[in-house]
Amino acid sequence: MKAILALADGRIFEGKSFGSSGEAGGEVVFNTAMTGYQEVLTDPSYKGQMVTMTYTQIGNTGINTEDVESAQLFLSGFIVKEYQDHYSNWRATMSLDAYLKENGVVGIQGIDTRALTRHLRDKGAQNGIISTIDFDHASLTVKARALPSMAGLDLASGVSCTKPYRWTQGLWDLANGYPDIEPKSAKYKVVAYDFGIKYNILRCLVDAGCDVTVVPATFPAEEALAMEPDGIFLSNGPGDPEPLLAVQENIRKFIGRKPIFGICLGHQLMGLALNGRTMKLKFGNHGSNLPVIDIATGKIEITAQNHGFCVDLDSVAEICELGHLNLNDQTVEGIRHKTLPIFSVQHHPEASPGPHDSQYLFGRFVEMMEKHR
Amino acid sequence: MPKRTDIKKILIIGAGPIVIGQACEFDYSGTQACKALKEEGFEVVLLNSNPATIMTDPDFADRTYVEPVTPEILAKIIEKERPDAILPTLGGQTALNTAVAVAEMGILDKFGVELIGAKLPAIKKAEDRTLFKEAMQRIGLEIPKSGLAHNRQEAMEVIKSIGFPAIIRPSFTLGGTGGGIAYNMEEYERMAIAGIDASPTDEILVEESVIGWKEYELEVMRDTADNVVIICSIENLDPMGVHTGDSITVAPAQTLTDKEYQILRDASLAIIREIGVDTGGSNIQFGINPRDGRLVVIEMNPRVSRSSALASKATGFPIAKIAAKLAVGYRLDEITNDITRETPACFEPTIDYVVTKIPRFTFEKFPAADATLTTQMKSVGEVMAIGRTFKESFQKALRSLEIGSCGLESRLFDLTTETRRALTGKEQQLLAEKLRTPNWERLWYLGDAFRSGMSVEEIFEKTAIDPWFLHNILQIVEKEEELKAIKDMVDDYGRGGSRTALTDLLREAKQYGFSDKFLGRLWGKNEEEIRQLRLSLGVRPVFKRVDTCAAEFVAYTPYLYSTYEEECEAEVTNRNKIMILGGGPNRIGQGIEFDYCCVHGVFALAEDGFETIMVNCNPETVSTDYDTSDRLYFEPLTYEDVLSIVDIEKPDGVIVQFGGQTPLKLAVPLEKAGVPIIGTSPDAIDRAEDRERFQEMLHKLALRQPENGTARSFEEAEKVAERIGYPVVVRPSYVLGGRAMEIVYDAENLKRYMTTAVQASPEHPILVDKFLDEAIEIDVDALCDGKDVVIGGIMEHIEEAGIHSGDSACSLPPYSISREIIDEIKRQTRLMALELDVRGSDERPVCRQGWGHLHTRSQSAGIPDLSVRV
Question: Counting Cβ atoms within 10 Å, is residue B41 exposed (0-12), middle (13-18) or buried (19+)?
Answer without folding.
Answer: exposed
